[in-house]
Amino acid sequence: MTGIPDPSSLRILVIGDYSHIKSQYPERTTLLWTGARSPADPRAIDGMATPGRVMRALREAREGKYDVVVAYPHRYSAWHPRYWFRGLLSTPLHPWAGLTRAFGVSLLRWRDPKVPVVAVDMGDAFSIPRSAIFLLDRAAVFLKRELPVDNWQVFYGSAHPNLPTLRFRKKPRWQRRLRKLRPISLPLIDFDPAMRLADFPDKTHDIFFVGGVDGNSSVRAAGLPELERLKALGYKIDQPTQRLDRRAYLERMSHSWIAWSPEGLGWDCNRHYEAAIAQSVPLMNHPTIIRHAPMLEGVHGLYYDPEPGGLERRAVAALADKDHLRAMATAARDHAFAHTTVAAHCDYILRCAFDPAV
Predict the structure, then answer these.
(1) Do 333 and 348 belong together in one domain?
(2) Nearest to 146, CA basis, from 163, 125, 160
């Protein structure tokens, strides 16, 4: 960590549609918004990422006003109708901003801010969009939430029409780009800070699960019959059918020893960390991605084989040792608060600007 600036001392320019850094360091961050929809609180941004506004900010970065630039690329090209059409609908009184703000990140292609750039892809997809490939040259590091175990797969369907071939993988240019990739996890956003020191909750159930299944990951649909078999074996399954508000959701989950947390549209899932802060041990299918500060098997979480019977076997084995589950639940909570809060998430991004090895 030697030589890495204190994140709270940095002057930060954010170009994108995530406001985490702005919320964490409001006085030191300029957020230029690229999202098709306006933010819930317009006061949370400093302006729309119109070409003139972005180019002026990048010029200011070159002049020393900012220490780091954080860019959140879009999933599709800025020319895609979903951006300019929704942008116009979102800000009908400002048509220029509606039409052009999606181009904000792409302007980095033509203007080097002369300070470290961090690209952050928080999307569900495992590939990097073609329109964001240039950031692998411009950025000091490219943080990707769904970073495949075989990193080369990020180029599937974008930089390469299929699975990248051996010839593609041996090219020095693409090897240099690949070395820019690092993982990042979802941040915990809405929680009661008192949960950090809460007493261990009473346990009334063995396993908790609530979540969308229809139209979601096949892993979820495949696991439901196994929950039914566990129920038939006498295990207590808490599976709410009604929608729960966030407070009720966390409270109810806290009373189960295990929270089944299968992947959704991406492997990384908010429930992994929500279960941890509720002191319910997350039971996840084995990861398909490289993770930042991962929850370790048997220490902070449980992992199961997604093949038939894997969920049932892992749950039965874990529930046979409640003392171990209790210790894991406490460790998982401490781990989540140490690594996945918004503060930890933002500081990780900023530290990576100066030392990608963090």
Answers:
(1) no
(2) 125
